[in-house]
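for the record, two folds in this file. i put them one after another cuz i was lazy. first one right below, seq on top, structure tokens after. the second one comes after a little note so u can tell where it starts
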Amino acid sequence: MVRKMSEYEFLAPCHFGLETVLKNEILDLGLDVLEVSDGRISFLGNEETFAQANIFLRTAERIIWKTGSFRAESFDELFEGVKAIAWEDILPPDAKFWVTKASSVKSALFSSSDIQSIVKKAIVDRLREKFGIAWFPESGNSYPLRVSILKDMVTVGIDTSGDSLHKRGYRKLVGMAPLSETLAAAMLDLTPMNAGRVLVDPFCGSGTICIEAAMKALNMAPGAKRSFTCEAWKERVSEKIFKRERERAEYGVKRNVKLDISGFDIDMEQVKIARQNAALAGLEGMISFDCAPVADLVSDKEYGFIVTNPPYGERLEEKEALPALYKQIGEAFDRLPTWSKYLITSYEDALKYLPKAPDRNRKIYNGMIKTYYYSFLGPKPPKKA
């Protein structure tokens, strides 16, 4: 029988460069942050945290329950370190478990396949001794393990999320070079935008930035409409906890907020995809999506926001068009002098074509691509009487 614990340690990976954003989200949930490292936050929680972190965190890639850590410079040390963990208190006898991912950076052990097989064997040896059985049916619930080794420090954990948390459940259709939902949410968190302000994305693609902005403005929990691996762990997390947290998410939605969010793209098929994704997110008719180039971007509204992800030129044929495109972006920015503009790109010459130097510049890794998130701050709107 597995042993329930009063306190758990969790790990939440995120995009490199966005650790502070995720840390603030975790603190806002009332949880204690233990450590902030490159691309990862560790924090404490209880049984309720399995549900809360998965349902409410917008910028985490997944939630991992940390089961142990130790130093290992040889495969023997790796085996003994994993075997020393009290797996009989963690996994039920019929658990289906495997190492879904093993990574190693600057460590003596670097073969992912060897790490995976040794970790599995060590756990089986431990459970065989503790449960007194020779063969495990693995017919029960899934417990996908993740192992990371950094400078010979091994961290072992169990993935509670399943599919990455960027999969909110609304984006059934994607366009070319889609921006992940978690990165879009973080970009919005790095602006002072609030629910009542104007937001435009002139390169909306499949609509991710606009949809994430609307969900944030309406306080819609990002994971409320999807399932998670740990929901099946009834011996660990009660069904009532997930039911209660989903009800809390539903109760917290601000249904009377008036949105002013628009997305534009030169590809009508992308616009259609964005509209369908918005409908799947429960936002049908609440976001305006239209077909238009950035060269036509104008507005008679003051003090709005542009948050966008224009083409980077990752494909060779796109690179030749980038100078003209970014010149058009710069001209559009000039036409909206009272607006604040936020732009993410890996195009190194982008600033040559934009009207002024950015007020802020943050380096973010979008997968393996190094990007820059430029902030051009407009004047603050006058306070209403």
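(here's the note) second protein begins now
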Amino acid sequence: MNPGPPARTTLRPRGRAILGGVKVALLSDCYLPRLGGIEVQVHDLARHLQAAGHEVEVFTATIGPEHLRIGTDWLDGIPVHRLAITLPKDFPINPFAPRTLRHMLQAGRFDVGHAHMGIVSPFAMDCVRVTQGLGLPTAVTWHSVHGNSTDWIGATGYVRRWGARGAALSAVSTVAAAPIQRMAGPGYPVHLMPNGIQASDWEPGAREDDGVLRVVSAMRLVWRKRPLALLELMEEVRRRVPERDVRLEILGDGKLRPRLEQRVAELGAGDWFSAPGRMTREQLREHYLASDVYISPGTFEAFGIAALEARTTGLPVVAPRRSGVSTFIEHGVNGLLAGDDLAMVEALVRLATDDRLRHRITEHNTAHPPIESWPSVVELVIAEYQRAQELERRRRAMALTGS
């Protein structure tokens, strides 16, 4: 990999208003080449901030190319500072990183630090403590849904403390934001910071109707994404509409593939189910254009980027009402939302038997691109950085006055 030009150190006054370019430190436990939702989303955010005229550097505990643990590599023209140590399975954890990170952030003279949180993100948590200790305006975005973990995480009090010290708190969906807001308390609002997509990568195209209803989903084959539950749902749909040829395709890979293949054999589903494996973005779009409905069965989906991409190609989306997909899917307009698995079965049966409804939703999605495209998301992100700067100015003023 070409290491790119050397990192620049620019001296800038702290706390300036964001009028032109802003220098951002993106702080994340996980980053490419490790694959996952946060990794890809933070990388894409870095690229689109840079394309909009801002200066971006990434700090992560993820090992880089050629097993780089400590040092800087360049990915798509963006410097990625690796602060990793040797751990089993290369877990992105480094309790020794804060001292080095503090020095690098001071030397870099950043305008804002933006931490990206999963359910448990020890590196990002350390990053927030460092940025707030330096008085650097800090934004924190949660990318996961806190379910049963809400109580014990809330008991630690760190979300409220971050808010009290001036951090701008946000989450990728209303579903993800709700538990964070409960932990932060009413005095520290949690803003909506949706994930973004490059809408032009998912442009709608011509579809052929051959009488087969093709249902598609894209996911990692892990328990949380519920691929086995989806297979069972589709068997029930087929039982309810025997007059219709209904098929299911799951795009992606993961550790549950052997279990999934075993269950397919037990159900005799080989003639109506396929799982061709991991796809590129171009391949995903081709499969979406060859399908009729997208389903996102996960109940703990913080956002649902694959569902948004499929919706952008025109597909009606079926998803649980309590998942993050409900942030961008309006029931009956661009998809159908369901309260439980039985309701998801009924939604699929409805789309299988009501061609007019399915075509109307497809036409709507084709004619109306989603608002969660990168230009709009970058504007929201910059507004959040402005909020972080204002909150930090208020904190300093209160500290000076002793109020």
